[in-house]
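User: Can you predict the 3D structure for this chain?
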Amino acid sequence: MSTQSGITVSEQLSNEVKNDTSTIIIKVSPDSTQLIPDTSFTQPSSTSLSSVFEQLHSYISKQYPQPVYIIIPYKSSKVFVSFIPDSAPIKQKMLYASTKNTLLSNLGSSSFAYKFAWTELDELSAEYLEKVINEDGESGPLTEDEKILQNLNNKSHMQGHEYGFKRELASMSSPSSSATSDILYKFDGELENEFQSLASDANDQRLLVFNIDLGSELIKLTTKDTNVGLNSLVKKLQDNSPSGPTYSIYNYSPNKYTFIYSCPSGSSVKDRMIYAASKNSLINHLKTYLNEGVILDKNLEVGDLDELELSELEVVDDDTPGSGTATPTSTSSSASANKPSNGLKFSKPKGPRRR
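Assistant: Here is the predicted structure, written as structure tokens:
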């Protein structure tokens, strides 16, 4: 994991990248707080790739070995170059290296067809660029998994911000939908109706199982059951869940819901990526259907459904005298796993003996 420098992308740079199709040189501001476009760079008289690189080479060689980032138009897309010479001052090398991920994240990494890390002036040429692209250099052809991730990134970038394009769902056009802007698929009508009734009838041990239909690009209701006891929950889920990943909502206690995400070991890589990418935003969206008296306070994630810890959903009487309330036994499966049961205490292991 790379260390982040804390430097942010300036609004000027963000606007220029979105609205300008010419070559852009990016540098760190003099006070080392923002990434800004280098306005002293003069665009070449011709838009040909060779002219662009001749101008770049001439300009950067005068500042060498100062690191810079470069965005170059290439055919119908763009190329991103992180140019950090080996002979650059150590402080500058560390600063630019630790800021690259922030820059790509803000501009939208998937908006660049190729991304390179170059260190020598000789690499700043049209011939070298064509060579590394043709040889499937650093960028290389995308694997199937990388294509899936790129497709998800393209869908999840926010429209109108520096993160690229984002489509908004028709089911999330209300003012309260700001927390749901990352959901990738619409809900079908039947599932939408069930979501809207979550708050009004939250004491029927309801179980909703729903899945993503990639063919229609919809999240569809698979099954609905009521009066599902805790002891029969796993059986109900197994009987009504397809072979791949599944989302579920269960009314485990009066006015309380849990979200369950299961991803069996035999699931395809594509399904795993899509379901994982949608999960957190889907949970946030579900909470917009509830109110102060009805909550979704648990999020359980398992592989195979028989791994589901039902103890997470048990409720016990509150020990506080006179409270008369019931509280969940736990809110985290990891916390439950690490907490000793039945009041057992474990001694701290002894250190190595002294010689």
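The domain at 8-137 is CATH 3.40.20.10 (Severin). The chain has two domains: 8-137, 186-307.
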